[in-house]
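User: Fold this one for me? It's glucan endo-1,3-beta-D-glucosidase.
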Amino acid sequence: MAPALMILILSIVASLHYHIRIAIALSDIGVNYGMVGDNLPSPATVVQLYKKYSIGKIRLFDPNPDALSALRGSGIDVTLGIKNQDLPSIASSVDTAKTWFDANVQPYISDINFQYITAGNEVVPGDLAQYVLPAMHNLHTIISNYKYTGLRVSTAVASSTLGTSYPPSTGVFAEAARADMVGIINFLSSTSSPLLVNAYPYFAYASDPINVRLDYAQFTAPGPVVRDGNLSYSNLLDAMLDAFNWAMEKEGVSSVDLVVAESGWPSAGNGNFTTPQLAQTYNKNFVKKFLAKQGTPKRPDHYLEGFIFAMFNENKKPPGVEQNFGLFNPDGTPVYPVFS
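Assistant: Here's what I get for glucan endo-1,3-beta-D-glucosidase.
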């Protein structure tokens, strides 16, 4: 074989290997699929978009039948949320929880890889929080009875669940949330399930740009920005997550891993704080961190999963930044490239 032809073949093989490796790696990244818009593509089209960009995990905020049908046989891992208004009935008894499960999960269980079911989405103390733990218990009972060993139950909480978070070692649960959170994290520990956390460095930066450095919020700081005892932090997301780790540890729970259920950066809606370039920088670096399978300074060896918020700009959300977290326009074109 001629040397030039051999070089060409080796180059093609190397290129294919690289792109296959990138596609496999991206399968570890998740994106939230919100549907608060009147111009969004069909769920079948959306699932094809996930597959086109090798996005391997999807988070649904409720059991939308069209989305679940489109996900059949897709190979995409699914985190399925329960509507907050459904929590009281699911919490009331195992039978009512089973009714929900049999209607929304059981018909798809053979064709969809459900990873987590989350009892509520950012339930706040004093609202429906008292229903989260009993709902989790009831769902866990049903899953155990069905012997679905790969499916776990959790919930998604906001950063405001913490009363103190800076520096991370001072992390404690807010007094109004503490009683509910202690029960929840003990349940998660007993079932080897993670806690899903919504963590947005953008909001911390936008609310206090004098004291929160942009490079610290965007994973671009050249070195440590915050030192906390013997731990150093070069990005705000790690600090936010470790505040949760410290808060759980102070309640005697050190075995619960974290999943970043939501994180992102809006590309418009708040002047110079929200540009496509800033959004691209944050989300590309978010992907880079999670593909590197990096833990946090406090738990460097613990595997983290991460979901970007969100797949689309959703025009029925409140005007401003809430409409501009999307990675894609409703026509399927990228708002800015992240996965290419």
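One thing worth pointing out: The longest helix spans residues 3-26.
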